Amino acid sequence: MASAGPPAATTQPALPSGTAVLRTIPYAFILPEIFCGTWVWILVAATSVSFPLLQGWVMYVSLTSSLISLLLLLSYLFGLHRNSENWKVLDSLYHGATAILYMSAAVLQANATIHSESGPNSPLNYHLNSAASLFAFITTFLYILHAFSIYYQ
């Protein structure tokens, strides 16, 4: 009777480092997340923040998550993760939590957009708020994709 040998070890794929981060899913989503999140912040700031309570949260979430995502991207580019499996957990938890926060910010920005239809400088503010809402929902979708695609690697 021939022995089949030891079972094949299942190895986890290595975490990317360097420019391979930009070509590997889900890590390739980080750059669009930063880009779209920065546009949310720029567009809301351009409206002169007519609704400080609503849009203050939107600006906080967009700026903070863009900066943390930039730090995460830099850590992947420079290989600071040292191929540790804990980074996958950290990455998934960060992107999942940020997706929830971004969803709340996107809904608040959509509410601010509705309220900006009638007011001073209404056409300009309405268009800027509409664009900010669109980018906020796109960014939310990118964070959700990133958080869930880690499980399908």
Report on the biggest sheet: none
Strand coverage percent: under 5%
The residue-averaged pLDDT reads: 84
Q: How many strands appear in the DSSP assignment?
A: 0
The unreliable regions are none
| Structural class by SSE content | mainly alpha
Tell me roughly what share of residues is in helical segments. Answer: 55-70%
Specify the number of helices. Answer: 4
- Overall shape: it is elongated
Order of helices and strands: HHHH
Distance between the termini: 37 Å
The rounded Rg comes to 20 Å
Subcellular location: Membrane
Organism: Eolophus roseicapilla (Galah cockatoo)
Membrane topology: Multi-pass membrane protein
InterPro entries: MAL (IPR013295), Marvel (IPR008253), MARVEL-CKLF_proteins (IPR050578)
Structural write-up:
With 153 residues, the chain is mainly alpha-helical. The protein has one domain (33-152). Helices cover 66% and strands 0% of the residues. It has helices at 30-46, 52-77, 86-115, 122-149. Helix 1 (30-46) packs antiparallel against helix 4 and helix 2 packs antiparallel against helix 3 (86-115). The longest helix is centred in the middle third of the chain and has 30 residues, at 86-115. The radius of gyration is 20 Å and the shape is elongated. 34% of the residues are buried. The model has no long low-confidence stretch (mean pLDDT 84). Its main location: membrane. It holds the Pfam family MARVEL.
